[in-house]
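dumping these here so i dont lose them again. two proteins, back to back, each one seq then structure tokens. dont judge the mess
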Amino acid sequence: MGKDPLPDEEIVERLAGLSGWVREGDAITRAFGVRYHGGVALIVNVADVERLVGHHADIDLRWDHVRFRITTHDAGHRLTAADFDLAARIDRIAAAHQAQPHNT
């Protein structure tokens, strides 16, 4: 997956296709409501996929939710196609864990 920085217009377009993800500067973020132990299981599944695709999110685990923050570190902390691909993968994994949207 491409790791060249995306222009703002393409970021807006790709973000529109990912429900629940929001842009925070040069990163995209989303939180899922899930109890602590379910959050740990969710993180383990996401980490397995991240290892396979060679891209990772910053992850914040709390007692009632997990928050993901994605940017491409080796592209100068800019958004790339790899970030949006990972976000879509995280969405599918979260759905499998029955995690709910969460506002932080």
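---- next one ----
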Amino acid sequence: MNGKVDVAVVGGGITGLTAAHHAALEGASVVHFVGAGIPGGLVANVGELEGFPATGTVAALDVALRLAEENERLGVEVVPEDVSHLEAAGAEWRLSTEAGGRVVRSVVAATGARLRMLDVPGAARLIDKGLSQCAWCNGSLYRGAEVLVIGGGDSALQEALHLAKYASLVTIVTRGEALKARRSLVDRAADNERIAFRWETDVVEVLGGDRVTGVRVRDRGTGEAEDLGCAGVFVYVGLAPNSEWLAGGIDRDGDGHVLTDASLAASARGVFAAGALRKGYGGRLTHAVGEATAAALAAARHAAA
């Protein structure tokens, strides 16, 4: 891969697809490093998007595929590789992949975040053996069974509502005394007779031999431990930003989120960040789309300056 382009967008999720789209519409030459996964990022497995500005029910994968098709029509160069490193090249930037590299005038970092896993005994060993982070992928395997959802945010409740279509009982286990999810999801979950709640509770171990058989929990108030039996555990305990590939001179917080100003510019000139990678991201898909648009326009203007 040789030659300079105006804007490189890194990340194959909705944020990256949107950024590449708007940078191309602005007239910039765009190379889009989408990685090896399917278009759409973390939300690609969500069959019914909540709060997305569309008529009727829309699947995230459909939105991603339509954006990808439109971007190719606009002339966006798509590279199905992950960027391993970003480094300054004078007033420009060099992005490295296994196949080589590319020098660009500006960069939109949109690599999003990954789901955090429980850091307790048994969790790593039982991944894909009853422990999952995709209810839309695996929910139908638990017809008539009891399952647990760990977490209290939007993702946890969205997945719990989907699981309730199949499972006989979905128990949401959360560390807090209230849920952090948006009100519409909380109300729907509270009204669902197949969903129960376990408040102020920590999961301290995932139990099972060849398959998940339950979890050990501890009450945060009393300290008492108890084993909860279940056929499956679905974990949604937060996100970790995918920022390891960025240059060392780009400021991040203690968790790795990129720090930006109000225009979404990072601390290094010509680098912009949008979506779940960024400190201050609002957390909703509409926020990601808005940030991606703003970052793309800023990156295109910088490249043209």
